[in-house]
Design brief:
The structure is a single chain. With 201 residues, the chain is mainly alpha-helical. The protein contains ten helices and two strands; from the N terminus they run E-H-E-H-H-H-H-H-H-H-H-H. The chain has one domain. Strands 1-2 form a two-stranded antiparallel sheet. Helix 6 packs antiparallel against helix 7.
């Protein structure tokens, strides 16, 4: 019976032998695909942005009640700030949902491969979207094994780039790639091209 190897294809030998064995999932162990519910998928693809938006709304309502006797200028400013945070959270959630849909289509077409998941490892929100796509296509165990092999755990919330350099949050490039992810290249060096070549061989 065939299997799906999720050991990195770049020839990285840094993983131990036991880890590499754990990263091999037989086809018999892959559960069937789960049905899709678009609205629930939208919520599950980006739980952190949605939760942050809800907390911001709750906090804003509490502060508004507390400042009910405050000046007419302060309350609109706080409302605008809260609305801006909610807008950013929903923009982030929408981008993660589109990434989830793209990744799900790739998994359904090509099956699990580390090169599909590698671009999604940089942030918790992207990993959540990737895990949902893996769950929907029956590759959740393989996806979790790959995340553990790279050292990621559920409590890792801060994006890798921000952890390395907190000033990344002040750079427009960070927000551009977060809220406006560009379509992956379809050139000869792209992941899609490589997987198609493997599929035809």
């Amino acid at each position: 019976m065939g299997g799906i190897s999720i050991v990195p294809s770049n020839g990285d030998k840094s993983l131990s032998g036991n880890t590499q064995k754990a990263l091999f999932l037989t086809e018999a162990a892959i559960p069937p695909q789960t049905p899709s519910m678009p609205f629930m998928d939208y919520l599950r693809a980006a739980p952190l942005p949605h939760l942050t938006a809800l907390k911001t709304v709750a906090l804003g309502l509490g502060v508004d009640v507390w400042l009910s006797e405050a000046s007419a200028l302060l309350r609109p400013l706080l409302a605008a700030a809260a609305g801006w945070v909610v807008l950013l959270c929903q923009a982030d959630a929408l981008c993660r949902y589109h990434e989830y849909l793209r990744l799900r289509r790739m998994l359904e077409r090509y099956g699990f491969h580390p090169r599909i998941f590698t671009p999604m490892l940089g942030s918790r929100c992207q990993r959540d979207a990737a895990l949902l796509a893996a769950r929907k296509t029956g590759h959740l165990e393989a996806a979790w094994a790959m995340l553990r092999a790279h050292g990621y755990r559920a409590y890792h919330l801060i994006p890798d780039s921000v952890r390395r350099d907190p000033h990344t949050l002040l750079r427009p490039a960070f927000w551009r790639t977060t809220l406006l992810p560009r379509r992956r290249s379809r050139g000869r060096n792209s992941t899609v091209f490589d997987l198609r070549q493997r599929q035809n061989t």
